[in-house]
Amino acid sequence: MESESEPSPPPPPSFSDADDPPPSHSPELPEVIALSPLLPAFDAALSARFRLLKPSPLPLSSPISSAASAALVRAPTRVDAALLDLVPSLRLVVTTSAGLDHFDLPECARRGVAVASAGHVFSPDVADYAVALLLDVLRRISASGRYLRRGEWPLRGDYPLGSKLGGKRVGIVGLGSIGSLIAKRLEVFGCIISYNSRKAKPSVSYKFFPTVYDLATECDVLILSCAFTNETRHIVNKDVMHALGKDGVIINIARGGLIDEEELVKCLMQGEIKGAGLDVFENEPSVPNKLFTMDNVVLSPHLAAFTTESSSDLLELIIANFEAFFSNKPLITPVSM
To answer: Where is this region: Disordered (predicted)?
Structure first.
């Protein structure tokens, strides 16, 4: 019998002519590999300062021949052993996100690959967005707008009243950069703030709860602003939702996997909690269809961090991190590993 031929390996990634620097560029420009698709503005700005290599196709499936030592990634591109094997020359990976759940940080540390993140660039805008989602859920702004646009106001009368924000007991899960800014904004509205974190923070006066369940029992609102890790996956489960209660609201501007999404849908449908404001989802970009029909749920497609201003600030930070690296200076936003 003839033996079956082994499948041929995938061809090595190619670099388009557009990746070559124009004649006016110095041949000594340091190389940066884009391991994720880039926005046009980022592409143009980075190409003006570095020799930007854009392998195709993405995601990578075979080794790169370049000796470039620095790369840029966007979530959800995974930076793990498999990727690092394909680009063994890397010594720095800069990510456009503040969250690091797409990184295998121990593996990066083992290989001597430094990581730089978006730091706190997005924090103010995400905090604003969390408050906006909460206001929308409580005051039913989006839902009443749909009511008006459907022409139901003259036919069915005034839209049902919403709830005030002032005086609400708000529990924040993760009192880091974003969580702290959310707390400060909600204090202005007269909210009573408490929090759960890995440990109590002596620098704040808010009441600390050692578990999310305990926090939920004492709150009207839960806002999720913690990192997504193996330990925090489904940190908001059925028990936590029931502890929050029928008048409770959940806001998530962190990562979708923090919530047991299937249980959330059930609790919303059965009236076990009052409402939710969700900017992130467990299997993005897929969103449970049942959420689309609920007027007590406000949805957005992972937009909390992104404004024209934050994008501009992020681009400046990315360039500053690369320039620091190539000048043998400390990174601006290094990740501890």
So the answer is: 1-30
